[in-house]
Write a structure and sequence with these properties.
heterodimer, A: six-stranded mixed sheet, 5 helices, 29% helix, B: alpha+beta, five-stranded mixed sheet, four-stranded antiparallel sheet, 4 helices, 26% helix
Chain lengths: 287, 257
């Protein structure tokens, strides 16, 4: 809980109503996004995203595993978010656990598509090495280092950046293995395959304060929200997932309006994020 | 079980799914496929509700949608735990769990955290929490048999149980989900359809106030499709709420007799 006086609350709400927020932004302006890639050398890919005081790290680890029998031609991806109590005291114990599961579920919903695997941002069939026998398991782990609102958007961006930074080792499958035998594989240390991250959606959270909605809310602004909708949109402008937060009810027409606003905002965000990621990757190669 | 349905005596017998090898239930290019249970695409399963299923609870309800069977009890309002801070608003504590035999593969029977938080978020907007400050209401849901669309059934059943417990609410909460299979939108999907779905949409709403309390979408959707899906679900929700309302009326009229 953020301790705000009545005056401060009115100031935030009044500012949003007049389209000028406490930090000078307009309602639909993001804070500057800072992207660093390759921050965790132990992982196959990693990225750190900072938006104002919100600071998150996302890592991707790839391990060889076995595909599930129902979908032999697909790899597996799991997303887990950790809200460490080092970021904020309320993340200790159950509070952090609840937030962690909520964020993890929302990210899975946004990035992994439907149960059949259709519409997934990450192409699961590209993770298969030998159909029905060997596939890559991607473990995407995110850490909230510092929280100042809008965690979901930051985490979504961090995952996108981490995946574009990920190199998966090329695997040589020894020929001759047949039937039920598990084929032998040789993992290359030098050759890495890059991921196609162009289909990965970005997440836009619209927070409703009063009668207006804002993007990229800070913790203080979030404390004044009645409800929020997180919408993930891909480059084609299709909605890839939607999660509602906050208990207050919304009129269905407002939901649809929020979706169209989110689509509009996402175009700018995707372009901005792509250029930031490209710049970060270029900076990493130089150093 | 006080409210055993008289018309469906086989309530608790497991569904006879002897088919071992699962075939894909539809072909992506086939537009005229038939749903496994013979329903139309925009046709919901017959809903059955009964309140007063558990005697010990302040309020309870049992719901049965095809093979999906859930029971929800509401306890309280009771005094909040001492460690909790003072609050002008009442607290809502939700928990959804599955029985070990609810799923085709034997489960753990533990709490389903994701569903619990979804249930909480769907209900808190509808309950007038100001009416029971400093106290907590517990909502415990148990899925006896999972037959698809479990969460919507749990949510609808829970709001009925809350109404049975006499907790003040703005409106009943009705919930309906929808699966996107290929080009078709299929309402109230069963377990098989859910496992093959390309996308899913879940709406919980208060039909009389025409407000959406919770909404989730998975998979890739274009805007017109979302519009269509939401409209289908909202229509189904208002129809479902009518059934729920008549169940409540029926319960009070029989208790008066």
């Amino acid at each position: 809980m953020v301790g705000l006086s009545l005056g401060e609350k009115h100031f935030i709400q009044g500012g949003i109503a007049q389209d000028i927020r406490s930090d000078g932004r307009k309602r639909l302006t993001y804070r500057p996004i800072n992207v660093e890639t390759g921050v965790i050398p132990q992982a196959n890919g990693s990225a750190r995203i900072r938006m104002g005081a919100t600071d998150v790290i996302s890592t991707v680890k790839a391990e060889l595993g076995k595909p599930i029998s129902l979908q032999p031609d697909k790899g597996k991806v799991s997303i887990y978010v950790d809200c460490s109590p080092t970021a904020a005291p309320m993340f200790e114990g159950r509070g952090g656990e609840e937030l962690s599961t909520e964020l993890s579920v929302a990210l899975q919903r946004s990035l992994l598509g439907g149960k059949s695997g259709a519409g997934a941002g990450i192409d699961l069939s590209s993770l298969v090495v030998v159909e029905g026998k060997i596939c890559w398991d991607l473990y995407i782990d995110c850490l909230v280092v510092c929280s100042d609102g809008n965690l979901l958007d930051a985490l979504g961006a961090a995952i996108k950046a981490a995946l574009s930074n990920t190199g998966i080792p090329r695997v040589q499958v020894a020929a001759g293995a047949s039937g039920d035998e598990q084929p032998e594989v040789d993992i290359s240390d030098e050759e890495f395959l890059q991921f196609d991250t162009s289909d990965i959606p970005v997440i836009v959270t619209l927070t409703k304060v009063g009668r207006h909605y804002i993007v990229d809310a800070t913790t203080e602004e979030e404390s004044q929200m009645s409800s929020a909708i997180s919408i993930s949109v891909n480059r084609k402008g299709h909605i890839c997932g939607l999660t509602k937060r906050g208990g207050a009810g919304l009129d269905p027409s407002i939901v649809l309006d929020m979706i169209s606003v989110a689509k509009h905002v996402s175009e700018q965000l995707i372009n901005k994020l792509d250029s930031e990621i490209a710049a970060a990757e270029a900076g990493e190669d130089e150093s | 079980m006080a409210g055993q349905p008289g018309t469906t005596p086989t309530t608790y017998s497991p569904s006879p799914t002897t088919q071992k090898t699962r075939k894909p239930i539809f072909n992506k290019d086939d537009v005229d496929w038939v749903r496994p249970d013979g329903r139309g695409f925009h046709q919901c399963r017959p809903a059955f509700f009964r309140t007063g299923a558990v005697n010990a609870a302040s309020g309870s309800a049992y719901a049965e949608f095809g093979n999906t069977k859930v029971i929800v009890s509401v306890f309280g309002p009771r005094e909040s735990k001492k460690a909790m801070m003072y609050s002008d608003l009442g607290r809502l504590n939700c928990s959804v769990s599955y029985t070990t035999f609810a799923t085709p593969v034997r489960g753990q029977g533990s709490e389903h955290k994701d569903f619990s938080s979804m249930l909480h978020k769907s209900l808190e907007g509808a309950i007038i929490l100001e009416t029971f400050p400093k106290t907590t209401v517990d909502v415990f849901a148990l899925v006896l048999e999972s037959g698809g669309s479990d969460l919507p059934v749990v949510i609808s059943c829970a709001s009925l149980a809350l109404a049975d417990a006499g907790i003040l609410m703005h409106d009943l909460v009705a919930s309906v989900s929808l699966s996107c299979l290929g080009k078709n939108l299929v309402i109230d999907p069963i377990l098989e359809e859910e496992s093959y779905q390309d996308g899913g949409l879940l709406i919980t709403c208060m039909p009389s106030r025409y407000e959406v309390t919770q909404l989730t979408v998975t998979g890739e959707w274009s805007t017109p499709k979302i519009n269509e899906g939401m409209q289908l679900c909202l229509d189904a929700c208002s129809k479902l709420a009518k059934i729920m309302r008549s169940c409540l009326k029926e319960a009070t009229s029989t208790s008066q007799e």
